[in-house]
Amino acid sequence: MQKLSFIDDVSMIKILYWINTGKTCNLDNPRTFNEKIQWYKLYYRKPIMTKLADKIAVKRFVSDAGYPEIVTPVYAEWKDPGSIRFEDLPSPCILKCNHNSDGAIIWTADRIDEAETIRGRIRRMLQNNQFWGSREWCYKDIEPLVFAEELLQPKNGELIDWNVFCFNGVPKLVLCNKGLITASGEHSGKAARAAFLPDFTPVEIESGMDPIPIDEIQKPQFYNEMLEVASRLAVSFPQVRVDFFQIDDNYRFGEMTFYSSSGYSEWKPEEWQYRMGDWFHLPNKS
Q1: Cis check: omega of the bond before 92, within 30 degrees of 0
Q2: What would the pLDDT profile of 130-168 be if each residue is shown by its tens digit?
Q3: Quick one: which H or E segment has residue 123?
Q4: What is the pLDDT of residues 256-274, one digit of tens each?
Q5: Dihedrals φ, ψ of 31, to 5°?
Q6: What is the C-alpha separation between 34 and 108, in angstroms, rounded?
Q7: What is the pTM for the complete model shown?
Q8: Is the C-alpha dihedral spanning 92, 257, 135, 186 positive or negative?
Q9: Who contacts 261 (Cβ-Cβ below 8 Å, separation ≥6)?
Q10: In b/e form, how buried is each residue of 1-29, taking b as 16+ CB within 10 angstroms?
Q11: Which of 19, 26, 138, 216 is deepest in the core (most CB within 10 A)?
């Protein structure tokens, strides 16, 4: 995507917004959540955001904030995929890059014959600077690394992903996602989702995923604690989504996302775009 670096950020944002939504992006007076995400990319640039978008560095941030028990352990990290000794990796584990959203690779010892193919895929992942293709500023200066971490494996049911949308540190909307990741670690095209207000009142929001029947979701015993952690991590930012994984009756920190869906989310009914836009108070340009 670096071949597009000759296009200035404002023009690229407007082009990408039109391609992905079919709408013109109003950067002078943004009102919807999606428009404000685009403004956020361009004009809100705190150096710490680069650290928090880095999937390795953010673990240290969460630990230092007082929550080491919810941080998934990293086994090893590498700049050069040629340095990975696959035969020494715990089996199973998961391989990820720290600087983008290219998916992940689930490693098991019986894949040793695929080691060179996997190494090649990792090289391609490391070369992809997410900034140039999306202009999501906080990814621009992350030093690319690949790392291996513990594979989260629920004993009962599947891995559940919780997204807590926080505005100035206040949780306002919570999404519950199932089936986001395939058995091989890829992003799934068959994910399902349900939406809740912070008090766990369900709300009707369509977002391009199949709905999860509400009677299939029980409020986790850690739910209120999870929202409190999200609030503390998010307090310094006008808007950030804090993600967690549910593993049976426990939870782990996932990541902090400043540009949810890169600002192209298909919220329906559309009133949710304006409601979330109203929650999102833009700061002065930085």
Answers
A1: yes
A2: 898 899 999 999 999 999 999 999 998 889 999 999 999
A3: helix 115-127
A4: 999 999 999 988 899 999 9
A5: -120, -40
A6: 39
A7: 0.94
A8: positive
A9: none
A10: eeeeeeeeeeebbeebbeebbeeebebee
A11: 138
Q: Helix or strand or coil: residue 29?
A: coil
Per the CB < 8 A criterion, the answer to whether 1 and 128 are in contact is: yes
**Does an H or E element contain 277, and which?**
helix 271-279
| 240 Cβ contact partners less than 8 Å away, ≥ 6 residues apart | 52, 166, 233, 234, 256, 257, 258
| Integer angstrom CA distances of residue 88 from 1, 93, 105 | 34, 11, 16
Residue for token digits 């058995």? 183
- Ordered mean pLDDT values, 10 residues apiece, the chain (286 residues): 76 96 96 98 96 97 98 97 97 95 88 96 91 93 97 90 98 92 58 94 90 90 98 98 96 97 92 97 90
Token pair for residue 213? 């029947």
Burial class for 62, CB neighbours closer than 10 Å (0-12, 13-18, 19+): buried
By C-alpha distance, which of 195, 186, 274 is closest to 241? 195
What's the token pair of residue 263? 């600002």
Question: And the tokens for 231?
Answer: 């609030």
The residue whose two tokens read 């519950």 is 176
For 126-131, the CB contacts below 8 A with 24+ separation are: 126/81, 126/97, 126/99, 128/1, 128/100, 128/102, 129/1, 129/2, 129/99, 129/100, 130/1, 130/99, 130/100, 130/101
User: Which amino acid, one-letter code, is at 195?
Assistant: A
Query: DSSP code of 240?
Result: E
Amino acid identity for residue 141 in this structure: D
* 3-state SS assignment for residue 40: helix
